[in-house]
Design goal:
alpha/beta; Metallo-beta-lactamase, Chain A; 8-stranded mixed sheet; 33 strands; elongated; ribonuclease Z
């Protein structure tokens, strides 16, 4: 049997630590943070045999990719998945009920407790070790935080805080993934008039209503997993078998497969398999350690469940230990001493934000952005990256004197590094890819571009126009403080439904240095896209962008439009200075999801004002004074229940309209009249209009026609089906039509540039 561990993510800004354990008959994933699904797509990692997911913490950086992963696995044919984790696992799973459900599969939540901390199957024997920090907060501090909302509060309900509550949550999960059971509640589909004036009222069946789940609290539990593979059978000895009179051939095979045979000179003596096999060897052991901070070090290192695995107590020490660590943990001498107790035979792999490099993970997208930056370096920027690893005790590590305290076999983890457990324990770097380097003259980025002579010619032509006309016009308008002079639109994610190599899922940032920023949807990986676009940026940095966000709009409850929200909120909290108050507009179910998750992890909900999209008033919303917004109009559109578009008109005169996901809509055309910019979904090319109607999306030409009827100055097409990996085909585009790419930043005054890009783009992506 062959088995190995592989690191799928480290602390790179757009991935979090995740480890894959692979056996011949099954695969197991430890932690599924945001970006894990896209990581697997980028690296062609198949998860068809995935049956179990283990979470070290029920916190967003460990479980943020679970909702999207479950949906994709169900669609790929995985019929049964079990999620294992500590306290609040069932609460987390049940809280996703508004947007995660698949009738063709079964998902089980196995929440560990003191009575049942173990999992076992043919491949793995897993022991869960739950660790609490040395300082436990008072109950009042564990309680869910208060919140503000423009939405009416839910009616008071009494829920049990016991096993009954857990049973209720498990029932909710069983209804989300019920393997084909009939659903029977009618839920109205989002209406809104189409451009033919007709209003549809489809329904969807559900078996039970979606009541609030019982509340919970926030125990800061970190789970370490001690895992052992199956015992390795001994080797067959042909010499021993022959000496016992066993005939070579069939009888050798029977003995190897565990059956006794007749031997001896007269073939009258029973020969049993143990007589011709070397002794069975116990399976390899690996340990996944999660130690978020020094507060966990004492309880972790003193836990007796690790004692049997210390070198002085066993002949089978762990083959490998993967340490998911907070930045201050290795500074603790107690932790370093604990690592050495497992002996010199154990390989240690460190995964931490402090020590891991920040290389480009999604190379397909980075290569695309680099090529586009040659077309226009102002609108397209090479994503931030750093290929430097900080080795503990060396380099820039502030503590340089503890190298001798560390185990001799220690490496800093990196993407795709493997540890072969069977048949021979060893590190394996063969799957790793060469790091992205945009300055490498012999790398595929620049080398391939030199082959595109027509593209280079067109780039020079376009840049000549910029320098002779556009830049002069833009500078003049900016000096005159023309409406929108300081507004920049960054398309963080431009793909539909699922992430791909080239496009992440939906998110758009509207940044204004004077009024603050607006985030339009936040699909999974939105913060990672922000990190790559703005980290290290001289003009507008990542922290400035995060702190400037004053309004977030969630267009509807499909997971690809909002799963990335919590990382954005959590990262805002980590930035020392206090962020500005935040208003979130969205469907009422989104606020329920936020409040229920806030009982598990502090996402700063006490500083959030929530407003239901259908209740938005056009002139007197709270954000008017704060962000200088004159008019904010949420328009119900035809897509799914509670789906909305948004029109934003600023006091200074600029107007931007965002469609969300929808069919062409008359109400939106009226609300967005004479917009400076329409950001409209264009999921399908024109030849798939029938599919666009069935799935309640728009084609490219339909989006352009909406802009024409709206009298919008410019239209930016986005939300492309992943069947168009680079650019879709647009029939008869006008000079005011632009195609959105991930990481593209365009000022309102720069929008006229976009029309001139279409010809070189067709050469770059034929």
């Amino acid at each position: 049997m062959k088995s190995y561990l592989q690191i799928l993510g480290t602390e790179t800004g757009d991935t979090t630590p995740s480890i894959l354990a692979s056996f011949d008959s099954g695969r197991y994933l430890f932690n599924v943070g945001e970006g894990t699904q896209r990581y697997c797509i980028e690296n062609k990692l198949r998860l068809s045999k995935l049956t179990n997911v283990f979470l070290t913490r029920v916190e967003w950086d460990c479980c943020g990719g679970v909702p999207g992963m479950l949906l994709s696995l169900a669609d790929a044919g995985n019929r049964s998945i079990t999620i294992h984790g500590g306290k609040n696992l069932t609460h987390f799973m049940a809280s996703t009920r508004h947007f995660v459900f698949r009738m063709s599969s079964i998902v089980t939540a196995n929440e560990f407790n003191d009575a049942s901390p173990t999992y076992k199957d043919d491949n793995l024997d897993v022991q869960a070790v739950s660790i609490l920090p040395s300082e436990i907060f008072h109950d009042a501090e564990l309680a869910p935080a208060p919140y503000q909302s423009m939405a009416p509060p839910p009616p008071p309900q009494q829920f049990p805080r016991s096993e009954e509550a857990s049973q209720f949550k498990r029932l909710v999960i069983s209804q989300m993934f019920n393997s084909g059971s009939k659903l029977s509640i009618r839920v109205g589909l989002g209406g809104g008039a189409g451009w033919d004036g007709k209003r549809e009222d489809r329904t969807r069946d559900f078996n039970n209503p979606m009541p609030p789940v019982p509340d919970t609290n926030r125990p800061p539990v970190a789970v370490t997993y001690i895992c052992q593979g199956p015992a390795v059978r001994g080797k067959f000895s042909p010499d021993k078998a022959a000496a016992l009179g066993v005939s070579a051939g069939t009888d050798f095979g029977l003995l190897y497969n565990g059956q006794e045979v007749m031997g001896g000179p007269n073939r009258d003596v029973l020969v049993y398999p143990p007589m011709v096999m070397t002794p069975e060897r116990p399976g390899s052991i690996f340990i996944i350690v999660d130690c978020p901070s020094r507060k966990y070090v004492g309880p972790l290192c003193s836990n007796e469940k690790f004692v049997p695995h210390y070198a002085e107590h066993t002949n089978n020490p762990p083959s490998v230990m993967i340490h998911i660590l907070g930045d201050d943990v290795l500074d603790d001498p107690l932790y370093r001493a604990w690592m050495k107790k497992f002996g010199d035979a154990t390989q240690h792999v460190i995964v931490s934000k402090k020590h891991c490099a920040k290389p480009i993970i999604f190379q397909g997208s980075a290569i695309s952005q680099h090529r586009l930056s040659i077309l226009d370096p102002q609108l397209f920027r090479v994503p931030f990256y750093s290929n430097k690893i900080t080795i503990p005790g060396y380099d820039d590590d502030p503590i340089k004197d503890y190298q001798a305290d560390l185990p001799s076999k220690l490496i800093v983890g990196s993407s795709l590094v493997m540890f072969q457990m069977e048949p021979t324990p060893e590190l394996d770097f063969t799957e790793q890819r060469a790091p992205f380097d945009h300055e490498d003259e012999f790398g595929k980025v620049l080398f391939n571009l030199r082959m595109l002579s027509n593209f280079s010619t067109d780039c020079r032509r376009v840049q000549s126009v910029f320098q002779s006309h556009d830049m002069i016009r833009e500078a003049k308008l900016a000096a005159e403080k023309t409406p929108g002079w300081d507004v920049q639109v960054t398309t963080l994610g431009t793909g539909a439904a699922l992430p791909s190599r080239y496009r992440n899922v939906s998110s758009t940032l509207i940044y204004s240095s004077t009024s603050g920023s607006i985030l339009l949807d936040a699909g999974e990986g939105t913060y990672g896209q922000m990190y790559r676009r703005f980290h290290g940026c001289i003009d507008v940095g990542l922290e400035e962008v995060l702190m400037s966000i004053g309004l977030i709009f969630v267009s509807h409850m499909h997971a690809d439009h909002h799963i990335g929200m919590f990382t954005v909120l959590l990262e805002r909290q980590k930035k020392g200075s206090k962020p500005k108050p935040l208003c979130i507009i969205g469907p009422p179910q989104y606020w329920t999801w936020m409040r229920e998750f806030a009982e598990i992890e502090d996402i700063g909900i006490e500083s959030i004002e929530f407003a239901q999209a259908q209740a938005i008033l056009v002139r007197n919303h709270l954000v008017r004074a704060r962000m200088g917004i004159k008019e904010l109009v949420a328009v119900q559109v035809e897509h799914c229940p509670y789906a909305y578009a948004l029109s934003i008109e600023h006091n200074t005169g600029w107007k931007i309209v965002y469609s969300g996901d929808c069919r062409p809509n008359l109400d939106l055309i009226r609300a967005g009249s004479h917009a400076n910019l329409l950001i409209h979904e264009a999921t399908f090319e024109d030849d798939l209009q029938g599919e666009a109607i069935d799935k309640r999306h728009s084609t490219c030409s339909e989006a352009v026609i909406v802009a024409q009827r709206m009298s919008a100055e410019h239209v930016l097409l986005t939300h492309f089906s992943q069947r168009y990996p680079r650019i879709p085909k647009i029939n008869s585009p006008g000079s005011n039509v632009g195609i959105a790419f991930d990481g593209m930043t365009v000022g309102l005054l720069q929008l006229p540039r976009l029309g001139s890009f279409l010809r070189p783009l067709k050469l770059l992506y034929p």
